Each structure stands twice: as C-alpha cells, then as structure tokens.
Amino acid sequence: MLITLARDVADARLPKAESQSEALAISAKQVQSFDQCAVNRKQALSGNCVAKYTISTVTDKDKKKEDFTYDFNFADIDISSVEIRTSGSTIGVRMRMNDNNNYIKVVKNDEQQNFDSDLVIPTPDGESAKILMHTIRKAAKNCPQAIETNCGSKGVGALDCAIAHVKEVRQAKLTVRQKLEKVPDNEYKILLKVESEKEAKTDVLSYEWNMKDIDTRRIEVKVTGKQVAVVLPTKNNEKVIKINKSEKLEYSAKVFVEVADIEEGRALKQIFQKVIEPQ
Length: 279
Prior knowledge:
Blueprint: H1 2-12, H2 20-30, E1 34-36, E2 39-47, E3 50-59, E4 65-73, E5 83-87, E6 90-96, E7 105-108, E8 111-112, E9 118-123, H3 126-142, H4 159-165, E10 169-170, E11 174-182, E12 189-198, E13 201-210, E14 220-224, E15 227-233, E16 241-245, E17 248-252, E18 254-259, H5 262-276
Antiparallel strand pairs: 1-2, 2-3, 3-4, 4-7, 5-6, 6-9, 7-8, 10-11, 11-12, 12-13, 13-16, 14-15, 15-18, 16-17
Helix pairs in contact: 2-3, 4-5
C-alpha cells in the first residue's frame, strides 16, 4: 500500500505531456546546459519528431573541446529501452532504436561518424532525468512512423515520384551519382544507373528489374557504416535483377538505392511500396 502510494505521488510530479507537441516541447526544455565535475556541457534538442540533439563539451583541465550532433526520429525509439543511466558522477537518459537499428546519424567535430543505435543525453540531476525519460517515452509513442512523401500517385503512377527522389548522394570521400529511368517496353520495368566515385576511382553499374518482382513486405532502409540505402529484395529471393557492371552481366535478388539519410530512405521506401501495392 505504501509503495503504491509513493509511486502515485512520484507519478503525479511528472508532466502530463499527453500530446506529441507537449512531449517534444518539455523534452527540449529538459535538455539543459550545465557544468559538472570540471566539464562544461552546452546542449540543445531541436526539431520535432525528426529531431537534432547537439552537445559541446569542454574540460576545465586541458580545455579540450568536442562537438557532437545526433539526428534521429522519435518514432524509431524503442520505448522499453528509455531509462535513466548513470556512469560515475554523470546521470542521464539513455535510449535505443527499435530492433537496434543504426538510425542515429552522428557527426563529431564536423566529421560524420558511423550511424549508431544508442544515445545518452546527460542531465544536471536525477529530477531532470526522470522528467526527460517520461517525456521521451511519450514523444516516442505519439510520433508517427509514416511520413509525408508528397506523392499522391499509386501503382505505376508513383514511379515518377520514385524517379524524383533518387538523387546524387555525397559524403566526405564518396560521391554516388544515380539516375532512375523507366524502360519503354514494360510500364513496371525500371533502370537504375549508378556511378560511384571514391578517391579518384570510379565504378559504373546499372540495375534493371520489374517492380512486380519485388517483395514489398521486405523493403527496408539499411545502414552500413556511414551509408544509407533502400534495399528492394525480390519475391522468394529469385535472382531476376539484371546487373551490368563494367560490361559484365550478372543477376541478383536485391537492388540497393543510395539515399542521403534515414528520412530520405523512409520516404523512398514508402513510394516504392505505393508502386507495388497501390491502396
């Protein structure tokens, strides 16, 4: 009885944050800059469901400064993973992406790092940590997985949207030039031309396939290191996708379409699904 009463009193101290906007606003307010144990932390949480968390740390001893930026979507957070985490004298809130997906873009001192699946946001004290944990859970629950693609077409008509979404992707040392085209002899057949340039070396290849051969249930946004791609697998993993690489012909059961980030990948995935399974 006493334990239940104590829990009810503790819960009553937490903000309601019933709506998406309330949860996001309170979360942003709880991400405060503070000094602790000879480390100065300046941090901020901005955006909406698609959020940006920035933190800059400076140590008093050697004045070493580090800047980090994390881009993520609250909808990707595994709600059950959101918890208060302590490490030595530091307390904060830790979160993990659903299925351990590496859906957090990390930039350190203006240089992109590998995508990650975990993030810890430090707080000045335990009370702030409790509130932040609570509102992050609320935001993760209320933010939608689906996003607006500005593509009203369905079926073969959505191919024009897919063509518009496939773009050049640039990283520090890698440039991927891509062009998606329709093949005249079949309305569902398309051609993807890819030119990858890295450190003066260029690779050229093309994919040709019929969208009706794609298994819509298994289309995914896949992260490898710093790269993000939409992967289109065939039904029953049949190797019916024609690949022409350096004038050598082979067949595959998957197409990889490079995208700039997770949100671009999410949008392109939804568009491809509109082509294959019009509602």
